[in-house]
Specification:
It comes from Branchiostoma belcheri (Amphioxus). The protein is built from ten helices and 19 strands. It is an alpha+beta fold.
């Protein structure tokens, strides 16, 4: 007679066989052109290995891989890269990518994980509070927690003939992986530009919120992100808190922060983009980047044709140039013109009538 343990082991083995058979029989053309990527990884996988037996972790990683690959088949995804704890999946349609992400997060929570694994802080069960009419607690975290990043863009496809597999190159791949690293365990972060274009009525039940703009590693410009969660797991958002747009770390409850440019910043991390001085007062924004007044005018203000200093106040436009009012004078006698004076151009510089006649030998 089979014991309960051996029956469970048989079921796990059969599940793996079935998933492998499904994977081998599942064929999809690799996406091309404008592609949507989802990067996913298990949060703190090294800690999970340290706090559980190897067999328990191996079984958990296999089950996680099964969930990812089944969803990839069902939502017409293409497996680009796979490691023990991470995947990169490509989709031709961004809607499929978002629904894939919501489905995988739900499946991870609904899966029955081993008790040894669930005793680990990074996999522990967390229940929804008894609110909103629920008579029994609802799970919002259970098992390994997945970080997910989603972004879309044009990429170059590279077909590897030896393996028969398509690879991808381009900044969007790195951007997606950067968004994934920024996400917390159990969180889906989506590039705001992708989110705005989605048909919201075709997305599985969800909740969302804008979380701000962040500086991703390797990118100069900030990337605006939206958090999207399955509606059934909406209470997760309360666990994620506020992230600093500069250091990408949690802002703790007792730490001060600045809300600016649609994002949140540690008070000592909201700095001038040019000189890195902390911005405690007035600042000026250009291209979604904050500048102190001095650097903004130094690097962005028009320059006076005469003295070449930045113009920070009133100015005169003349002779296809910009001038400080005090610098727009006759180049010979250095007198400022009055409203009744005529200004003449010689060698792209201003002259009063008398001086112009002198320098041009009396020819007007």
């Amino acid at each position: 007679m089979a014991t309960a343990g051996s029956v469970n082991g048989l079921e796990d083995g059969l599940d793996s066989v079935f998933v492998e058979e499904e994977r081998l029989n599942y064929v999809i053309s690799p996406p091309h052109g404008v592609v949507t990527f989802v990067a996913v990884q298990v949060k703190n996988v090294a800690t999970i290995w340290e706090n559980n037996s190897a067999d328990t972790v191996i079984r958990a990683m296999n089950r996680y891989s099964d969930i990812v690959r089944r969803a990839t088949r069902d939502f017409r995804g293409y497996e680009v890269e796979a490691e023990e704890e991470s995947f990169l999946i490509a989709f031709q349609q961004p809607l499929d990518a978002v629904n894939w992400s919501l489905t995988v997060q739900l499946a991870m929570t609904d899966t029955k994980w081993e008790e040894e694994l669930l005793s680990c802080d990074d996999c522990i069960r967390v229940f929804k509070s008894r609110e909103n009419g629920y008579d029994i607690p609802r799970l919002i975290f259970c098992g390994p927690r997945l970080q997910m990043g989603v972004s879309k863009g044009r990429v170059d496809s590279v077909y590897h003939y030896a393996s028969g597999h398509m690879g991808y190159r381009g900044t969007e791949v790195y951007r997606t992986q950067g968004i994934c690293r920024l996400a917390q365990g159990g969180q889906i972060l989506i590039n705001e530009s992708l989110w705005q274009d989605l048909p919201k009525d075709q997305i599985a039940p969800y909740v969302h919120r804008e979380v701000g703009s962040f500086k991703l590693e390797g990118f100069d410009n900030l990337t605006s992100l939206t958090e999207v969660l399955p509606q059934a797991l909406e209470e997760r958002a309360r666990w994620f808190g506020i992230i600093c747009a500069e250091c990408n770390k949690l802002i703790k409850p007792k730490e001060g922060y600045v809300k600016a440019l649609g994002s949140n910043w540690h008070t000592d991390h909201f700095r001038c983009w040019q000189c890195k001085k902390v911005l405690n007062g007035t600042y000026i924004v250009k291209d979604q980047k904050p500048y102190c007044e001095e650097d903004f005018f130094q690097y962005n203000a028009p320059r006076c044709r005469a003295c070449n200093d930045p113009i920070t106040g009133g100015f005169i436009e003349a002779i296809e140039s910009t001038w400080h009012p005090d610098c727009f004078v006759c180049q010979r006698c250095h007198k400022a013109p009055t409203k009744d004076d005529h200004i003449f151009e010689f060698n792209a510089l201003p002259y009063c009538t008398e001086c112009y006649n002198t320098v041009t030998n009396g020819t007007t």
